[in-house]
Design brief:
The complex is a heterodimer of chains A (131) and B (287).
Chain A: E1 10-14, H1 19-33, H2 39-57, E2 62-68, E3 73-79, H3 98-109, E4 112-118, E5 121-128
Antiparallel strand pairs in A: 1-2, 2-3, 3-5, 4-5
Chain B: E1 8-10, E2 20-25, H1 28-44, E3 48-52, H2 59-68, H3 73-78, E4 82-85, E5 91-92, E6 96-97, H4 99-115, E7 121-126, H5 137-145, H6 148-154, E8 156-163, H7 169-177, E9 181-183, E10 190-195, E11 198-205, H8 210-222, E12 229-232, E13 235-238, H9 240-251, E14 259-263, H10 265-273, E15 282-286
Parallel strand pairs in B: 1-9, 2-8, 2-9, 3-4, 3-7, 7-8, 11-12, 11-13, 12-14, 14-15
Antiparallel strand pairs in B: 5-6, 10-11
Helix pairs in contact in B: 5-7, 8-9
Classes of the chains: A alpha+beta (131), B alpha/beta (287).
Chain lengths: 131, 287
């Protein structure tokens, strides 16, 4: 096992038409960074849910920055929306609260998820620790 | 044409060694995105990747396009793992289409790739030349259908690209039937097909395709002649929203009329996380 494998950072704006490409690019880099199944799919799903959330609640677009840091594989997604705080574990979801469920699962599937909502938009940071 | 001989629809990201697939494309950007994904898998697996393209597509322009998709194409070109060829094996405008020569080329090139230390050969074949009026279309269809032994024997993988704007729908339909697989025309696209009691869903379900998925699944599971099985084995991605919809629709089924769902491990996990275990009508299996 090769440790501390560097990756080319991924940094780009995205809209709804870019989600499939985004998942592929994130998968490619996560594999290179050393993330393996089932955590690989967990991380890609978590990033996808946050990115979808940015599109739905952040004005139809967002921005992603994925890089390897000392902490692990780190993905920062920003948008122009007011943001949503992840509901508490065990919370109930009705049909209209799927975005809440998505964010809650994203938090459950990553090693760290942090939401910062400010006047200019929302920033979500997801981290997967690497082997 | 019965269901067993119909080509299997797959995402380009699911094309494995030994697969022979037809791509009907009509958009250059979508086409390059599929080419990039196909190439990326080959490079990662240690295969040699060869583009057989029109003369305008040079090694430089290919590298540029692939680089834009995040692939280190220049390095692959330098080490000979990526090759761009502007000739058409087995076809010459003067002498016509030589089926045997074209098929033999794939065997020879695969052997050559293996001797060079690659794990196999992955080919992107631009079939634009076959739209020329002197190419016998029946011969073309039998050539594609007759390639099965080449694929079975050598670990050769190919995506044959047919421009929908140049090949008529009838001919393209016959060409597709001659391939064991059909590649989804766009990265992230969705394909839904009903065969008897089974609904087969391939591709990706996300924000872009969720309405299509939701409409089809709701109609299938709430209408008459409900399918008893959902084959999601070629589903590459499902988001939480749509996995939750599947669980909700299954929950509304009569207790004695369950639906069997077959899917890959990652999708199995998402559906489980959306509460599948609490719904006895949803019989979930990996496969």
């Amino acid at each position: 096992m090769i440790l501390n494998r560097g990756i080319d950072p991924l940094e780009l704006p995205f809209t709804i038409g870019d989600l499939a490409r985004l998942r592929l690019q994130v998968t490619r880099r996560a594999v290179r960074a050393g993330l393996a199944e089932p955590r690989l799919s967990d991380f890609v799903l978590a990033v996808h849910e946050v990115a979808s959330n940015a599109i739905v609640h952040g004005g139809g677009k967002g921005h992603i920055l994925l890089d390897r840091t000392a902490e692990g594989l780190r993905c920062v997604i920003t948008d122009d929306g007011p943001g949503l705080v992840p509901p508490a574990a065990g919370a109930c979801f009705d049909d209209e609260a799927e975005h809440g469920r998505g964010l809650w699962l994203a938090e459950a599937l990553t090693d760290r998820l942090e939401v910062t909502a400010g006047d200019c938009g929302t920033t979500v940071t997801l981290v997967a620790l690497l082997p | 044409m019965d269901a067993s001989s119909a080509p299997r629809t797959v995402s380009v990201t699911r094309m494995n060694s030994g697969d022979h697939a037809c791509l009907g494309f009509d958009d250059e950007d979508d086409r390059w995105e599929l080419r990039a994904a196909f190439t990326d898998i080959g490079l990662a697996r240690g295969e040699q990747v060869m583009f057989f393209t029109d003369p305008e597509t040079t090694a430089d322009s290919t590298a540029e396009r692939l680089h834009a998709a995040g692939i280190c194409a220049e390095a692959a070109l330098r080490r000979g793992q990526l090759v761009v060829v502007n000739e058409v094996p087995g076809y010459d405008p003067d002498s016509g289409f030589d089926v045997a020569e074209r098929a033999q080329t794939w065997v020879t090139l695969t052997d050559q790739a293996r001797r060079q230390g690659f794990s196999g050969l992955r080919v992107i074949g631009d079939m634009g030349w076959a739209a020329a009026p002197d190419v016998d279309h029946q011969l073309l269809v039998s050539y594609e259908a007759g390639l099965a032994p080449v694929f079975a024997a050598t670990g050769f993988t190919a995506m044959c690209e047919y421009d929908r704007r140049r090949f008529g729908a009838g001919l393209l339909g016959r060409i597709r039937q001659a391939h064991p697989m059909k590649v989804l025309h766009r990265l992230g696209a969705l394909d839904i097909a009903r065969t008897g009691g089974e609904l087969r869903i391939a591709g990706d379900v996300d924000l872009r395709t969720r309405a299509e998925f939701g409409t089809a699944l709701t109609r299938a599971l709430t209408g008459p002649a409900r399918p008893t099985a959902l084959d999601l084995s070629e589903l590459c991605f499902i988001d939480v929203h749509s996995a939750a919809l599947l669980v909700r629709l299954a929950r509304a089924l009569p207790r004695d009329e369950p639906v069997a769902v077959r899917c890959r491990p990652a999708q199995h996990k998402v559906i489980r996380l959306c509460g599948a275990a609490e719904v006895p009508q949803l019989v979930l299996a990996e496969g």
